Amino acid sequence: MTFLSRARLWFDERFDWAGLVGPLKKKAVPVHKLSYWYFLGGITLFLFMIQVFTGILLLLYYRPGANEAFESVQYIMTRVQFGWLIRSIHSWAANLMILTAFLHMFSVVFLRAYRKPRELTWLSGMLLLFLAMGFGFSGYLLPWNTLAFFATKVGTEITGQVPVIGHSLMVFLRGGEDVTGATLTRFFGFHVAVLPGLTILMVLVHLALVQYFGMSVPPGVEARWKAARGEVREMKFFPNFFLRELMAWYIALGVLGALAAILPWELGTKADPFAPAPAGIRPEWYFMFMFQTLKEIPAKVWRLDGEVIGILLFGVAGLLWTLLPFFDQVGQGRGRRFIMGVAIFAVSYMFAMTIYGYVAK
Amino acid sequence: MDTLRNNALWRAMFLFVALLLRVSIARGQAANTCLDCHGALDPPLQVTEQQFANDIHSQKGLTCASCHGGDPTRADMDAMSKTAGFRGKISRKDIPGLCGGCHSDGAFMRKYNPSLRTDQLSQYKTSVHGTLFAKGDTKVAVCVDCHGVHDLRPARDTQSKVNPLNVAQTCSRCHSNAEYMRTYGIPTDQFAKYGTSVHHEAMTARGDLSAPTCTTCHGNHGAAPPGVGTVQNVCSTCHVFQAEMYEKSSHKDAFKAAGLPGCVVCHSNHGVTQPTDAKLGTGPEGVCMQCHSPGDVCDQARAKMLVELSQLDQAIKNANQVLAVAESSGMEVSEARLGQDQARDSLVKARVTIHSFETKLVEQDIQAGLATVAKNLQAGKDALRERNYRRIGLGVAVLAILIVLLGLHLYIRQIEANAK
Asked: Residue by residue, what is the 3-state secondary structure of A48-87?
């Protein structure tokens, strides 16, 4: 008896191995011309795993604190063996993860995968996207460089504009009235403890829901299958789809390695809280469309503060977007058509505003 | 017709009442009625309310009567009567004494500005202006020529004639006027030369108000040209280290013996430009060979120092180029960049040490700079080597990934073929 067989027997005697892996064996993935979009969720998960792995490695050398953070990242980039690779992969993977999460979200919208009974899957996915953006916002400050310092200052200032709770929220985020070393340690705490804990929990919920409901089939494909007397094309998750997903992960790994080697993530100059804000302060690209919109709104709209109106609009839009599946069944297909229209507008608006944000002076 | 007449009558009554009100209000406030007339007169008798409001004396509560006498509370010509103590226009010969009457009185000035000096008049008496004035030359500058009159602003005001930004222009009003200066037999190109100088550039282009202007070197109230033997004392107020080196150098005594004006011999005075290493050369900018002979020991020292300076300058530029390439490849070389600042400091220090004319001292600074720059260059080269290593690593990794992808692809095909 080989070691593997003995180990299998040992587990079988205690945990009913066959019962545990049974559902996974039966799990199947629909096969159609839009099946490629199914890979995006898996790639996002892979990038998150990369983040956890590289993040732990960075933790070995990173020191939170206004007097040490920049120097420790500089040390990682110049002195630590392969430190540059780990830090660059961490930064690039963070951005790619947000990108694939956004693409995954929009693919779910356009393929209407959010529809009944998967409303909670959508909801957990949206929460994961918000958590990912929280990761990005908190992680951006950690190297304590000039651009990140002032971008965080502007970002938390915008939070301060939220009616009623804004100021308290800003003070909570900053750990005081201004962005200081206290903000850095606070963001560090969010970034390495609070957010990972919540995210891992939410990833498990999301995966469990995906597992429970199975992969959604786009309505058009579903209708064609029904017309063809229930002929359903599927492939096994293990190993067929999983191996293909593995190929996608390898490609992602190659892209990450290339980006890290050819375009190592830059460090900039150390933040000086007493220096005047440099020109060209901007947030990470995924906040750009909101940042640019807030810049474009006039300071006063009627008697109301323009920035407050912008924040409220984004708040309401974000909430409605999160509750999107619940509008799908409204009216005789009107809700569905409305969602499609809104989604097309949202993609175009975010894309155009992001580009405008980078080219506008 | 009646309507027209009525209108004219009403207007006349209104003006009369307005005048009465103006006079009564003015009396109530003990106002300065001089401006009522002098505001409407033509120059040179004109003094507008606007001008006087900007005047520091007016702002401190002084009135026309403080200098001119008279009683400004009277609304008629009695204000300028002898009985009211009216002195009229102040004669030029009385101006320094009149201004000094208050400005040399420490107790009086303390009430207005305790930090203001009170030695202007005594300094003026030592100046070229003051000594000629004492001999009866009233063409020379007196207080109001530089400070203005009636709209006299404090020096910190950028519109003041004596604000650092305007001092050269103020002096040039006389000193660039060849006709006016003809009797004094001094050049009138100082302002034009100053306009081309590094000092003027620092003042106007860089906005450095501490940069030298006329008064910085010549003094203000005690203005006089620095003596030949004391020029370096003037320059050394800012160029401390250069002066320290020069003091110990062999040039000091040699220049003194030859009656040469120190720093000015090599750097000129009003038109002093940004010195370059070419000053040590033998080209048109070179200064050493104006006195020294080719091949002598000083010429050899000059050539050695020039070569060393050029060597360090070029080494810094080379290292900068390598670091720039490394930086544009995304490599982190900020530490070496900081090191380059140190190397540049060594170069600047060597250029200062030149004033000692000691080749050994200059060489020390050059060697320190070269050692720093070598370290920085090595860091740049290491960064480029590391960049190439990473790219090779990437190539190997991509190859490995491609092999795995191919393997996975073949494996999937195999298991799917077996399943069929």
From this structure: HHHHHHHHHHHHCCCCCCCCCHHHHHHHHHHCCCCHHHHH
Contact B334 A263 (CB under 8 A): no
CA B86, distance to chain mean position in Å, is 42
Q: So what's the ipTM on this one?
A: 0.84
* pLDDT-based confidence at residue A37 (cuts at 50, 70, 90): very high
Dihedral, A294, A295, A301, A306 alpha carbons, nearest 10: 50
| Minimal-distance CA residue of chain B relative to A85 | B390
Cβ atoms of A288 and A99 closer than 8 Å: no
Does B87 score more than 80 pLDDT?
A: yes
Q: Are strands A234-236 and A300-301 parallel, antiparallel or unpaired?
A: unpaired
Q: What is the DSSP letter of B183?
A: G
Nearest CA-CA distance, residue A87 and chain B, Å: 12
Q: Do B343 and B396 lie in a common domain?
A: yes
Give pLDDT tens digits for A209-220.
998 998 899 988
Inside any domain, residue A221 = yes
Tokens found for residue B392: 């090779």
Using the 8-state DSSP alphabet, how is residue B82 labeled? Answer: G
Q: Round the average pLDDT of chain A to a whole number and report it.
A: 92
Are B149 and B160 found together in one domain? yes
**Cross-chain residue pair A247–B409, CB shorter than 8 Å:** yes
Alpha carbon of B370: minimum distance to chain A alpha carbons (Å) = 24
* Contact partners, residue A136, CB within 8 Å, separation at least 6: A94, A95, A98, A284, A286, A287
d(CA A287, CA B291): 69
Quick one: B78 and B145 in the same domain? no
Asked, for residue B197, whether it belongs to a domain, the answer is yes
Name every chain A residue with its beta carbon within 8 A of the beta carbon of B391: 261-262
Q: State the total domains in chain A.
A: 1
